[in-house]
Predict the 3D structure of the following.
Amino acid sequence: GAVVSQHPSRVICKSGTSVKIECRSLDFQATTMFWYRQFPKQSLMLMATSNEGSKATYEQGVEKDKFLINHASLTLSTLTVTSAHPEDSSFYICSAREGLGRRERGYTFGSGTRLTVV
Amino acid sequence: SQQGEEDPQALSIQEGENATMNCSYKTSINNLQWYRQNSGRGLVHLILIRSNEREKHSGRLRVTLDTSKKSSSLLITASRAADTASYFCATDAFGLTGGGNKLTFGTGTQLKVEL
């Protein structure tokens, strides 16, 4: 089955630094990738949608300059949390969808990244 | 926000009992999916039901969908302690903010199955 690898699984960084999270589709081409954020005991909130080769579409209220998304290839999307602050501490999860026509197979999720900003 | 709502927020049952979770959503959808998440872990896809389907089964799982009421339910029969997790419904629909179809999650139900 489809596999999405997300790295790192955990990261601790100092306030003011930037952190990059990678999301790779291992055995399929992901034309679209999604980034979610989840606070403890809460649901997943969609942050942005990225399509290969084009700019990401951000959900309302998500700061584009704070959460930089790059989807440079059909198998890799990255999320960079810039100038991180303690309130950015959260669980970030990526998801990948194969090309059009396969969306009913479901979305494949990475295992998530626990970000702690100290 | 287009996020759906689930109820109950938390459910505690004894092993062997059935667990029912409900999900309501707001927009037209292509399909609705149910996911499971163990504490602090990634998501596991459980089942997908298309908008033109009314009921679907997979092992001990039974999902219903009522598009007229914009609601779905997940039934887990003969629950086991290992079923303890959070369960989320997610609707696959065209995003109003652009970017094509996207998956929007419900608020989730925390299920605890006790021995």
Remarks:
- Chain B touches chain A at residues 3, 30-31, 33, 35, 40-43, 45, 48, 50, 88, 92, 95, 97-108, 110 (CB under 8 Å).
